[in-house]
Amino acid sequence: QVQLVESGGGSVQAGGSLKLSCAASGFTFSRCRMFWYRQAPGKERELVSTISPDGTKTYADSVKDRFTISRDNAKNTLYLQMNGLKAEDTAVYYCARARFCGVTSDITYWGQGTQVTVSS
Fold first, then answer.
1. Where in the chain does DSSP place strands (E)?
2. Hey, CA dihedral for 61, 69, 25, 38, is it positive or negative?
3. How far apart are CA 83 and CA 98, in angstroms?
4. What is the pLDDT of residues 68-117, one digit of tens each?
5. What is the CA radius of gyration of the chain?
6. What is the mean pLDDT of residues 47-62?
7. Cα 117–Cα 18–Cα 99 angle in degrees, nearest 5
8. Helix (H) or strand (E) holding 45
9. 60-71: per-residue pLDDT in tens?
10. Cα separations (Å) of 46 from 1, 29, 84, 95?
């Protein structure tokens, strides 16, 4: 079955960096669009970034020019490099996949999440 396991979260000071990883298994990773979401306390889950099978990337305006999404299909791993972190980036970050690999909606599969805490 589909499994997504995030790692790499932690606590950093504002301006610092973290790199999140998501190990994927149970499906053909290279064929799937992948997503990073985050959820801050008291807020709805929001889309942070996506990457398509051909490497096309999208970013939320709030993280553009600071975060970089990437994938290593040989390792079945998704990454999120986060630079210039701000207090408002504090959230639980989730790796996700849609029910069907070719679509951008119907996000069905979620990892357990990894906490990112940024102190100002």
1. 3-7, 10-13, 18-25, 34-39, 46-51, 57-59, 67-72, 77-82, 91-98, 107-110, 114-119
2. negative
3. 27
4. 999 999 999 999 999 999 999 999 999 999 999 988 889 999 999 999 99
5. 13
6. 97
7. 85
8. none
9. 999 999 999 999
10. 25, 22, 19, 12
Task: Look up residue 104 and give its two tokens.
Answer: 């951008």
pLDDT reading at 49 higher than 90: yes
In the numeric block, which tokens belong to residue 90?
Answer: 């504090």
Distance of CA 102 to the CA centre of its chain: 18
Beta bridge partners of 92: 39, 115
Which residue has tokens 């589909």?
2
